[in-house]
Amino acid sequence: MRLRSSKKNPIGLLKPLPRRRPMRTVVFAYHDVGIVGLESLKREGFEILAVFSHQDAPQEKIWFGSVTNWAKTHRVEAFCPGNVNTPYWVKRIAAMKAQILFSFYYRSLLGKEILSLPTSGAYNLHGSLLPAYRGRSPVNWVLVNGETRTGVTLHHMVEKADAGDIVSQMEVPIEFEDTAFTLYRKLCTKAGELLHETLPLLKRGVAPRIPQDPGVASYFGRRRPEDGRIDWRWPAMRIYNLIRAVTDPYPGAFTYLPEGEKLWIWWAKPEETPPSVIAPGTVEIEDEKVYVRAGSGRLRLLDVEIAHQRMGEQSLFQYFRPRKGRVLE
User: Fold this and answer.
1) Helices (H), the chain
2) CA distance 122 to 310
3) How many structural domains compose the chain?
4) Confidence of residue 60 (pLDDT cuts 50, 70, 90)
5) Residues 158 and 263 in one domain
6) Quick one: 136 and 63 in the same domain?
7) In 173-268, where does DSSP find H-type helix?
8) Where among 199, 220, 241 does a domain terminate?
9) DSSP label at 225?
10) Contacts of 312 (CB under 8 A, 6+ apart)
């Protein structure tokens, strides 16, 4: 016998679940990691209400993608205020009624007024394994310090930089020949993987929240171009770590010729040698290869620049052959 169903209470029909509305999201972003973050949010179905970014600095080499161009392509409103923490911008952001806020390599700290606005939290993506390497330029600092691993961390934002509870982090190994550029590309890839795993958890409100241990935290500040000066009294490995931390497209490591002309060293390789009485900074030539003596060991020069002229190995030999024995400063 076939059952008839009532229109008010149909038998055998399930009431469809209400469709979850996309989370209303405000994003603060810059650089390639900013674009990775925005692409991840779009892919996971977040509603991006507005993007805040920076005007590119006139003196900075722009080798990375434009967040504002991304916003324009995807028809998202973009702003580049000099100071986003003013009452005017706090009011503008409050009016957007965001549920969640993200910062992806945004270069300015967000004040407590902005951080308190989203109902589901404010999150930052940082380029290190927090609590290590809080602060600025972690991709450069880990190389300067000779680390063998780093990573990316998504964490809650609080007033103190990079100090909030950790949501998720993923490790990236540092290879011997990694430069800041190659390592940064790896971090961008890993950031995409982390967000792919973590954003659905944030949407469902089930993401982990792990307090940082301040006892093992480290903090590093902004690096300046003048920090690239080489001290030849350092061990060769320490000098190599500096070179790879700041080589192209970063400002570069440098020294000075005896006559005062600036010498940029874009690439070199360290070599261990027996202890020597030769003064650090001394130019040595063997088998048409150019070396510079360090505090311990030496570096083989492979790519340098003098007076806007870039030189590889053969040009290096021709240039330094009459300068053998000179001491770089």
Assistant:
1) 31-43, 67-73, 87-95, 112-115, 138-144, 180-204, 236-246, 313-320
2) 45
3) 2
4) confident
5) no
6) yes
7) 180-204, 236-246
8) 220
9) G
10) 302, 303
Note the residue count of the chain.
329
Shared domain check, 171 and 50: yes
Q: Are residues 245 and 125 in the same domain?
A: no
Please list, in sequence order, all residues whose beta carbon lies within 8 angstroms of the beta carbon of residue 207, skipping any fewer than 6 positions away. Answer: 167, 168, 198, 201
For the chain, first and last CA: distance in Å? 100
The answer to whether residues 145 and 115 belong to one domain is: yes
CATH of the domain at 113: 3.40.50.170
Q: What's the distance, CA 70 to chain centroid?
A: 19
Domain of residue 74, residue span: 24-220
Q: Are residues 149 and 248 in the same domain?
A: no
| pLDDT at residue 98, as a whole number | 97
Show the tokens assigned to 149.
Answer: 């691993």
* pTM recorded for the entire structure: 0.90
Same domain for 234 and 211: no
- Strand (E) positions, the chain? 24-29, 47-52, 77-79, 100-104, 122-126, 134-135, 149-156, 166-173, 219-220, 253-256, 262-271, 283-286, 289-293, 298-306, 309-311
Residue range 21-36, pLDDT digits in tens = 899 999 999 999 999 9
Residue 127 and residue 220: Cα distance in Å, rounded? 12
Rounded CA-CA distance 292/298 in Å is 6
Residues 32 and 57 in one domain: yes
pLDDT at 58: 82
**Sequence-separated contacts (24+) of 270-275 with Cβ below 8 Å:** 270/236, 270/237, 270/239, 270/240, 270/294, 270/297, 270/298, 270/299, 271/236, 271/297, 271/298, 271/299, 271/300, 272/236, 272/296, 272/297, 273/297, 273/298
